[in-house]
Every structure is written in C-alpha cells, then in structure tokens.
Amino acid sequence: MYQFKDRDDLRKFIQENVLNSSEAREFLEISRVRLSQMISDGKLEPIKKLPKDSLFLKADLEEKKKELEALRKKYRPYD
Length: 79
Description:
By secondary structure, this protein is mainly alpha-helical. It has a single domain, classed as Multidrug-efflux Transporter Regulator, Chain: A, Domain 2 (Orthogonal Bundle). It is 58% helix and 11% strand. It has four helices and three strands. The chain has a three-stranded antiparallel beta sheet with strand order 1-3-2. A hairpin with a 4-residue loop joins strand 2 (48-49) and strand 3. The radius of gyration is 14 Å and the shape is globular.
C-alpha cells in the first residue's frame, strides 16, 4: 500500500502520520484513562504497543475523532 523512495521519505511519512499516546490523546481530546479504555475495549487499535506507550496511525485517529465528535454532540448538547 505504501511505498517509499528512500529512508528520508519513510521518516517524513512517520513524522506526519504516526502519533504516540500523548499526541493521540491531545488529537482526540480525551483523557489517558479513556484512551486506555478504548484500547482495551478494541475501539482503537495501536499499530504498536510499547511498555509505557503506543503508536497510532493518524488516519485511524481521524476516523475515531469524527465518531467521538458525533457522540459528543448527541450526549453533550450543551457544549
């Protein structure tokens, strides 16, 4: 699916499209506990789990963000 010309091309892709847990929480506007719960429930799948962190594809997070925004509008209309 993805093809890279060289290592620099790969590095650029990773820098732009891979987020760690902290970046993912900030992007999704959720807490650390909520992120852990979503991973445990299978609602969000990291591309790699590390001992104290995980890595996520930005495209996956963008889909999840749309879903979370719709739920927020439904269940928190006062925001």
